[in-house]
Amino acid sequence: MSYGHWGKALRVNLTTREITTETLSDKFLRRYLGGWGFIAYYLLKELPPRIDPLGPENKLIYATGPLTGQRVAGGGRHMIGAKSPLTGAFSGSEAGGFFGAELKRAGWDVIVIEGVSDSPVYLWIHDDQVELRPAEHLWGLPTADVEERIREELGDKRIRVSQCGPAGEKLVLISNIMHDATRAAGRTGLGAVMGSKKLKAVAVRGTQQPPVADPERLRELARWFREHYKETFSAAYSELGTVRMVRVNQGLGGLPTRNFQQGQFEHFEKIAVEAQKEITIRRDTCYGCPIRCKWVVQVDDPDRPVDPRYGGPEYETVAAMGSLCGVDDIRAIAYAGQLCNAYGLDSIGTGVSIAFAMECFERGLIGPEDTGGVELRFGNADAVITMVEQIAKREGFGEVLSGGSRRAAERIGGEALQYAVQIKGQEVAMHDPRVKYGHGLGIAVSPTGADHMHSVHDYTYGTEGGIDDLRPLDIFDPLPFDDISIAKARLVRYVMMWRVTYNLTGVCYFQAWTPEQIRDLVAATTGWNTSILEIWLAGERAYDMARVFNAREGFGPEDDKLPPRLFEALPEGPVAGKVYTQDQFLKARQAFYEMMGWDPQTAAPTRAKLEDLDIAWVADLLEKA
Amino acid sequence: MSYGHWGKALRVNLTTREITTETLSDKFLRRYLGGWGFIAYYLLKELPPRIDPLGPENKLIYATGPLTGQRVAGGGRHMIGAKSPLTGAFSGSEAGGFFGAELKRAGWDVIVIEGVSDSPVYLWIHDDQVELRPAEHLWGLPTADVEERIREELGDKRIRVSQCGPAGEKLVLISNIMHDATRAAGRTGLGAVMGSKKLKAVAVRGTQQPPVADPERLRELARWFREHYKETFSAAYSELGTVRMVRVNQGLGGLPTRNFQQGQFEHFEKIAVEAQKEITIRRDTCYGCPIRCKWVVQVDDPDRPVDPRYGGPEYETVAAMGSLCGVDDIRAIAYAGQLCNAYGLDSIGTGVSIAFAMECFERGLIGPEDTGGVELRFGNADAVITMVEQIAKREGFGEVLSGGSRRAAERIGGEALQYAVQIKGQEVAMHDPRVKYGHGLGIAVSPTGADHMHSVHDYTYGTEGGIDDLRPLDIFDPLPFDDISIAKARLVRYVMMWRVTYNLTGVCYFQAWTPEQIRDLVAATTGWNTSILEIWLAGERAYDMARVFNAREGFGPEDDKLPPRLFEALPEGPVAGKVYTQDQFLKARQAFYEMMGWDPQTAAPTRAKLEDLDIAWVADLLEKA
User: Fold this and answer.
1) For A515, which of B475, B493, B531 is closest by C-beta distance?
2) Chain B positions in Cβ-Cβ contact with residue A475 (cut-off 8 Å)
3) Which site among B492, B526, B614, B618 would you substitute to test the A interface, given the most A Cβ atoms closer than 10 Å to its Cβ?
4) Which domains does chain A have, with CATH numbers?
5) Which member of A514, A530, A594 has the closest CB to residue B608?
6) How do residues A150-167 score in pLDDT, each as one tens digit?
């Protein structure tokens, strides 16, 4: 037995219904650490290249990190991965809540789900009792109902459920996997992978505290956080939730508005903190976390009742369904967000796809004859809600949008593609690279497509925005937001690699743990004599493995690009008229590639780089492909 | 003012006699850290390529690290550098003792000495009172006498002296710079640089404790070491001194014997710990260090009196003058070692050059007619002593050997070069790569020529030799000594880079500080929120800068080679008959280059690597050259 990890993976074959247990060696655990690292390992080892992401050969991997399930702030996170049906690339998406901790407490570090069931099933894990159970009766139900039904039928209210919603069942490519009906592993279309396997849900109940090498040290760290987080940037999340970003980004000039045509939303006050406060009934939190960043909302409108079982819209949802669609009605936004959670839709992918359609509509590329009469105009909250429903059900124009904005643009044709604000087929989140140049580079090169979870927002938050949410290792000079020099590329490289380690360790990055504390947390938990250097290298290893996965699938430099919209200057606000050029971007990207030890021709890590990371087997795989 | 460093450099122009003070910015201090980092910075910035190392354009740089002069074990070290007259490459050689601490306590982090004096002078630094004083009366005197004379004439017994001996005055290329008459900055011929400048000595007296950010934490760490070092590998140095390595290397099968023709010395017991104990009168130590690894010897032989003012022979001297020359008389070895210290000769370079000559003599490449009648046969202790004297004075056959074994071989001609066990013109130290393959790779690529101070001896000390003297960051699998795979190349890369950081920080690597503690020491001293990652990157930065210095001087892959002897199998002992091939070596070297981010064509860091280390200016320099 290890500390921190259990050293145990569960393998479930849905085709054969075989359920087996595998041992994870100490070496494996230490080298790949958790989360994305584990996922990349399994995907590279077990998926042949060029498989159909919605076919039986794809695998769905649940992975925890050493801190998942530990009694410490941030220990509530887990990660899910597969080959993405949305991007065709590496997929890894993380979620908070309670599911990850429960899975870990059931004695598992990893679940590998393979094959396809011939009828809907759900996986029930009660410590080491594991079974597949029929799920016909759950198929098509909204997520909160599924959760209640499973708890009821298994007779345990403390069961935690990870599930695809109806959208995933219908193979919507911007679907997600929901947890606690409120926390999404949101990006890269994982709900469709789960749906394609006819796996309705994973229900888990764990009763074992994961083993810890130095419990006293871990308690000390947990205590430190409880006593001090209010003196850190975590305080802002605690006080204002994620929706605080509405005002922050508006202030910077980059609140994504009307499909990224603008960076200033004239009605931003109506979707900002104060507005959301009016419908908030309580705050919620994730396993072990004192921050309580989540705001639970309720609206008693009989037409659009907002049910607190679905939590409340986070910043990404508020901006994607709000300013990005020109909508200023927080209640309508909350309702649209709730639909996403109930159907299992990625609210970012959904909001951006709808905003894209609105722009196409306003520009006359599509009309009411295409949309079934829906007036897809910016500001039309009813249209947003209708579209969310239609996307989830793949009905009407929703069918067109259900594959995300890139596929929709290809179907619409003409100039539509230039309005699709996506990278590798995945929609850009609510952080505009035109105010945060580093973020642009980060999302362009991300193996998972436009992904704000590891792509540095901008280091200069620390100095300009007043919010140090990047724990920048204290080894960089502050650089202005609009710097796109090699120094910025370097900063993006280092901060992104560090960001990935949050995923590997199982820690949420809203917690103001310093790198030293992350190291201490991992050391206390695992008993390893570890270092920031080792953890950092694990992050780089995972990232590079994901890039190799993509290279094997045919991705190259031509896929690491930004959509045309992000090279258009914003018309107003603090950054009006300013934008980086393609040349500047490409130069920074080239520097990034080379600093990463990637071959600029293939945009994949060189053999030497992989050898340096002690994963020559990954280089062998790539050369074979 | 900074913490840890003073932020002050002293610049002394010997030609103009101008003495100026320069401010070192916080950014400079943090990026280059100290020691080798500072030296590489100054040499790259200030030396034009291809200068004569013994001409006025060369500069002699003294550099401290943040821990130099702090009240903590290991804080006694400083570093001296220049363009090496022995190798024509980057030179950096470190020394222990008290001089470095005294220099730091005088308020200086760095001294840059430039130009050439028209008559012998010495530099007298008393805190911020700095002057050049005449040194005609010291010229030609042995080092211990010079030290006494300086203390006398300045009226302060606590003055510390760094000096070239008579050998340096005579531009012997295997000369060194001596401190306290007992501690050498031994390698790369720095004594000749000092001699060429007619700078006899640097005398220093400092009365200021360097500023520390967190004195309590530093005291705690110092206390930890005093209380615990006996539980670490430092205990072995404390108990047995460095001479313990005689038995260790004999046991491994690689005690360099008869010019590396053998790895087993049949009389090793006569030069091992017990033998040295018989002539040892007390133990000595360096600034702040409780280990007391130094053994002071005395022999009252009227013909060869061994004077305790010169300390005693360390392992390197014992093996180089002893087994390597086939000499088993510890008293003769102690006397030869004393001559080295008195004349300012590098005992490694001297011993290996003499052993080389002995092999040439025995093989008939030279004869008594060349050596002035000296019977240069293995085992002839008298011949060794005679040769040491002659080398120091550049008299007789000593003139031939005074440029080191490579130059001597070129003069002798024929097959002689294949018996010269040197790399880049510098002699291999007393660690045979045929029992420690990683060491072979390390000394081949070292920018300073064969240099055991940063080239990993072998990680597997930790598992096989029982001596963990490498603090291997705990991120490597143990590998057998005779592994020369890519994994070993990677291990060499990581451990070497970490080794270089000891030099930068000013810490001696006989102290069993863990990487975490080194980080804590630097953090407590400087107040920086630093990390192993940052310190590690500083080490890599310094190493790469040294490689760029060499590339600019025309060094390439063809210079990163091992001498032919080290590809010949050892005839007896544990590794008899086993040896790596050129092919294996070249393959490991290639992997090392690529993992380091060096262009295999030039063996210099790529622009991207230098950008990654945030020193694009170094790439600019290289491209200009």
Assistant:
1) B531
2) 531, 533-534, 537
3) B614
4) 8-205 (3.60.9.10), 233-427 (1.10.569.10), 437-624 (1.10.599.10)
5) A594
6) 999 999 999 999 999 999
Residue of chain B with shortest Cα separation from A475: B534
How deeply is A526 buried, as exposed, middle or buried, from its count of CB atoms within 10 A (0-12, 13-18, 19+)?
Answer: buried
CA dihedral angle for residue B436, residue B442, residue B443, residue B444, rounded to 10 degrees: 110
Confidence of residue B465 (pLDDT cuts 50, 70, 90): very low
CB contact under 8 Å between A534 and B597, yes or no, is no
Beta strands A199-205 and A121-126, pairing class: parallel
Q: Assess whether pLDDT exceeds 70 at residue B472.
A: no
- Residue B612 and residue A487: Cβ atoms within 8 Å? no
Residue in A closest to B31 by C-alpha: A475
The model's pLDDT over A384-422, given as tens digits with 9 standing for 90+, comes to 999 999 999 999 999 999 999 999 999 999 999 999 999
Burial B95-128, CB ≥16 within 10 A → b, else e: bbbbbbbbbbbbbbbbbbbbbbbeebbbbbbbee
* C-alpha triplet B273, B279, B280: angle, nearest 5°: 75
Within 8 A of B599 by CB-CB distance, chain A residues are none
B601 reaches A (C-beta below 8 A): no
Tell me if the pTM is above 0.80: yes
Size of interface A-B (CB pairs under 8 A): 83
Residue B30 CA to its chain's centroid (Å): 24
Q: B125-146: per-residue pLDDT in tens?
A: 999 999 999 999 999 999 999 9
Contact (CB, 8 A) for B408 and B356? yes
A477-491, B325-339, B349-363, range with the lowest pLDDT:
A477-491
For the residues B484-493, what does the mean pLDDT come to? 88
Strands (DSSP E) contained in B393-470 are 422-423, 426-427
In whole angstroms, give the CA distance from residue B490 to residue B475: 11
Answer yes or no: do A531 and B533 touch at CB < 8 A: yes
**Residues pairing with A80 in the sheet:** A62, A93
Q: What's the token pair of residue B340?
A: 């080295």
- Which two three-digit tokens encode residue A364? 């006359």
Rounded distance between C-alpha atoms, residue A408 and residue A402, angstroms = 8
Taking the Cβ of residue B1 and every Cβ of chain A, the question of whether any pair is shorter than 8 Å is answered with no
Average pLDDT of B549-565? 98
What's the confidence (pLDDT) of residue A510?
Answer: 86
| Collapsed DSSP state (helix, strand, coil) of residue A9 | strand
Place of tokens 């130290």: B429
**For the ranges A337-341, A362-366, B179-183, B525-529, which has the lowest average pLDDT?**
B525-529
Q: Does A126 touch chain B (CB under 8 A)?
A: no
